[in-house]
Amino acid sequence: MPRLPGLLGIAAALTLQAALAAPTVKLITLDPGHFHAALVQAADYPQVDPSVHVYAPGGADLDQHLKRIDGYNTRADQPTHWQEEVHTGPDFFQRMLDEKKGSLVVISGNNSRKADYILRSVQAGYHVLSDKPMAITPADFEKLKQAFAEAEKRGVLLYDIMTERHETCTILQRELSRMPEIFGTLEMGTPGQPAITKESVHHYFKTVSGKPLQRPPWFFDVTQQGEGIVDVTTHLVDLVQWEAFPEQSLKPDDVSMLTARRWTTKVSAAQFEQATMLKEFPASLKANVNAAGELEVYANGEFTYTLRGVHAKVSVSWNFEAPPGAADTHYSIMRGSAANLLIRQGKEQNYKPTLYVENKSAATPADFEKALQAGLAKLQDVYPGLALKAADRAWEVVIPEPFKIGHEAHFAQVTAKFLKYLEVGKLPAWEVPNMLTKCHTIMEAYRLSR
After folding, report:
1. What pLDDT is attached to residue 2?
2. Which domains does the chain have, with CATH numbers?
3. pLDDT digits (tens, 9 = 90+) for 355-372
4. What's the CA gap between 113 and 106, in Å, rounded?
């Protein structure tokens, strides 16, 4: 019969092993109003407890969120295992701050409240993973600056969900731009022909997770959702910084805003009902209804600016619904001294992002293709199977299907990366200054557009 100390030793080892394997992060979802809040939970994470506390006022936004989580839990392919514990009532936010049911707060919903949610959550000692935009007005930006200062003081992490950094075409565009034998050097550009252009077209009515997306009515209210010039542009400005100055800390003084404009998307009463399931515009929106009975939403924005002297242009527009067979589109170009790197996502690309390389150098097409093949060879360890295909006067970078991961899946990728940052207790040194510079850029465009 084994001696007692041996049994105790085994028990202690098993206890330690269980402790090491136990989840170390407990999620809180705060006032979910956007489907991005649910997409964070579209996958399980070994270090995250499956029990999630949801604090919200109650109502349709919360109901839609819980339905999406239930859909992930009950799907046939790789179901998740979340257990939602819901806390509702008029004091939901204060209760969340006081009760300390978790360690990481996920915020994705009505943007008019977001800056306050972020600041007070950080002040209460929570880590925060926030959907974009974190600020929709200059006043919000002041709160956000305070929140980052508080996060540093309290040793917690504040991060925004930049999904587009995980899109494979964008990653390859960035990698190829760092190969001078292919790209040369990034041009400085001009206001009329910027060195970097990013354009996105989105649609109010679409399908998400296999079902028609029901938008909350406040999504059409720019005082709650934010104008287009401060919303999706967050991704585009982020990519300009991330690609042009990789892993470099930027500051607001690096930015000079040149031009900015905004314009409206018109939404009929029938379209509004189709998107929200409401038969009429709520009172909060009626001041924005024109004489023809259409809701006018400042959903669109465009601006040009320089970042450390490099000219960039960012544009976002919203239509109600894509034509049959169409979808959201994206266009991006980086102009180098030896090549242009373009991403197109239109009809010719079957609305899937596709990367092209245009030769601008003195090299013959054969020599340039040889250099491009050598460049792709350097990426094969991470992206095996990359290939080239002639495409008019350019080359298409052919990406194997396993790497064509859709927008919805990127949320789990961002979350997994953030969880690694939590494990080491810090973000990369350039992330916080660049988040602040990004928001500063957008607020300068917001001001100038008026």
Report:
1. 37
2. 13-160 (3.40.50.720), 165-405 (3.30.360.10)
3. 999 999 988 999 999 999
4. 14
